[in-house]
TrEMBL record:
Lyase among keywords: yes
UniProt-recorded name of the protein: Altronate dehydratase
UniProt family annotation: Belongs to the UxaA family.
One of the GO biological process terms: D-galacturonate catabolic process
Residue intervals of the SAF domain: 16-85
SMART domains in alphabetical order: SAF (SM00858)
Keywords of the record: Lyase, Plasmid
GO MF term list: lyase activity
Transmembrane segments: none
Superkingdom, natural source: Bacteria
């Protein structure tokens, strides 16, 4: 596309003093048709000043401050890391002030249902799997070899209602304190996967002498669900080969039972969806994320639960959630987690404002404030009904926030442990992420990514720019894609076999 054909940059809010490039802007061009000429070529997603901005004045995008001018910025100039800087901001924490508007934002529900696997405990799965869960790294290879042996035997072909075997291995489970946040995280994650709606039966496998004892897990979380969760240790089973044989034998016994469960119509209130973004770019906040936000609102209207996460990546945009908190208690929970993170990164010589990665910046994102605005857009506009710990299963329906790191595999692991049966993941730079036993549905923010990584991307949101598809129309398309995936349509990451190594519990505390 030549300079003459370049579409004008898009201003996203009337109060903004920057606009986002829709097309490549060549060196020496004037994307606005006036003002300063560009000193270098720019990719789509980067920002152009729509008016002169004085040194020290706020830079506004989506109606919010994303940074401050490091010097005089001329009309038409490129606005990025060289002239837009982060500094502590005084965001308004008027908790619940927008609650009524958030309630009014809930769309009208329809009679939509999905075909899922109904469990005896009332949960509903989007997949039907057997989970092998290592309590400690010492048993990791053992359960992987057992799972591989079953998969390579071809026996799963005889059980069409069984979607597979998932081996959940990790680097933890011993050399750690038996109390504190790291311990609590790991316990919640291990039990959350074993008792997941997408898991028909689970087998814990330990070494035997580790800190994370199977008996402690059952004592803390047990109950009626113990009937489909069992356990064994390598030391008691007679070593590695004997344990693998025992695991394989138990799987063979479980397969006919798990295969008896078939899909049946279920209300959407049984769905829990994890919202994620990774490899974000300048398009994320104007295409895929707001469209996913509209789909989230539709899910909430139908009684489903949607989980927003990645606490460091809402920094600077938290007021958009606080303003629609269902109560002061919910707002205070979120603020408490943000305070914890500020202290946590200080202790570890980090800063929350250093979050945008090199890929984010190459895609046009400049500060954590800008990145956070796009991240929060995934959550739509409905009330924030609760805030939960990492890996904790929400009890509230609707929009829930889970405290997690921003690192994708760690965050998704927490969401799945909390009961998410499906992950929806937006990306602008590209991602090869996958997850199991809950599949990941990936949305491309731009046409270029969808074309170049078509084998990894499930849905293109770039046509919101190239074909002027509305947020509402794309949001409904995502909503339908979510339902189809919940009913068994395979995602690109499932087709590629991704997800076996993305089980990464959040490690907090000393390794001893």
């Amino acid at each position: 596309m030549g300079v003459a054909e370049m579409r004008p940059p898009r201003q996203l809010h009337p109060d903004d003093n920057v606009a986002v490039l829709i097309d490549n802007a060549p060196k020496d061009s004037r994307p606005l048709g006036e003002g300063e000429t560009l000193t270098a070529a720019l990719a789509p997603g980067h920002k152009i000043a729509t008016r002169a901005i004085a040194s020290g004045k706020p830079i506004i995008k989506l109606g919010q401050t994303i940074g401050f001018a490091a010097g005089e910025i001329a009309l038409g100039a490129h606005v990025h890391s060289h002239n837009c800087v982060f500094r502590a901001h005084a965001a308004e924490y008027d908790s619940s002030a927008g609650l009524e508007a958030a309630r009014a934002a809930i769309p009208n529900a329809t009679s939509r249902r999905f075909a899922g696997f109904q469990r005896d405990n009332g949960q509903v799965g989007t997949r039907n799997m057997i989970a092998l869960v290592s309590t400690v790294n010492c048993s990791a290879t053992t359960i992987r070899q057992a799972a591989m042996q079953v998969q390579q035997s071809g026996i799963l072909q005889d059980y069409p209602n069984v979607d597979g075997i998932v081996a959940c291995t990790h680097s933890l489970g011993c050399g750690m304190a038996s109390e504190g946040p790291g311990w609590d995280n790991l316990q919640r994650v291990l039990w959350g996967y074993a008792n997941h709606p997408n898991v028909g039966a689970a087998l814990f496998v330990g070494l035997g002498c580790e800190v994370m004892q199977i008996a402690k897990l059952k004592h803390r979380f047990g109950g009626k669900d113990q009937t489909r969760i069992s356990g064994l240790t390598i030391q008691e089973s007679g070593g590695t080969r004997a344990t693998i044989a025992q695991i394989v034998d138990q799987i063979h016994q479980l397969l006919p039972q798990i295969n008896q469960v078939s899909r049946a119509p279920c209300n959407l209130e049984h769905l829990t969806i994890g919202l994620q973004c990774g490899g974000s770019d300048g398009y994320s906040g104007i295409t895929a994320n707001p469209a996913l936000g509209y789909a989230s609102d539709l899910l909430v209207a139908h009684g489903a639960t949607v989980i927003l996460s990645e606490t460091p990546e809402i920094y600077g945009a938290e007021q958009l959630l606080l303003q629609r908190a269902a109560s002061k208690e919910v707002a205070n929970k979120l603020l408490k987690h943000l305070d914890w993170w500020q202290n946590y990164v200080d202790i570890n010589n980090g800063t929350l404002d250093n979050n945008p990665s090199p890929g984010n910046k190459a895609g046009g994102l400049t500060t954590i404030l800008e990145k956070s605005l796009g991240a929060v857009a995934k959550a739509g506009n409905t009330p924030l009904n609760d805030v939960v710990h990492y890996g904790e299963k929400p009890t509230a329906k609707g929009l829930v926030f889970m405290d997690t790191p921003g690192y994708d595999p760690v965050s998704v692991t927490g969401q799945i442990a909390g009961g998410a049966q499906l992950i929806v993941f937006t990306t602008g730079r590209g991602s090869a992420f996958g997850s199991t036993p809950a599949p990941t549905l990936k949305l491309a923010t731009n046409d270029r990514l969808f074309e170049t990584m078509h084998e990894d991307m499930d849905l293109n949101c770039g046509d919101m720019i190239s074909e002027n598809i509305s947020v509402e129309q794309k949001g409904r398309e995502i909503f339908e894609k979510i339902i189809a995936t919940a009913e068994g349509a395979t995602t690109k990451s499932e087709q590629l076999g991704l997800g076996d190594h993305e089980f990464v519990p959040w490690q907090i505390g000393a390794v001893m």
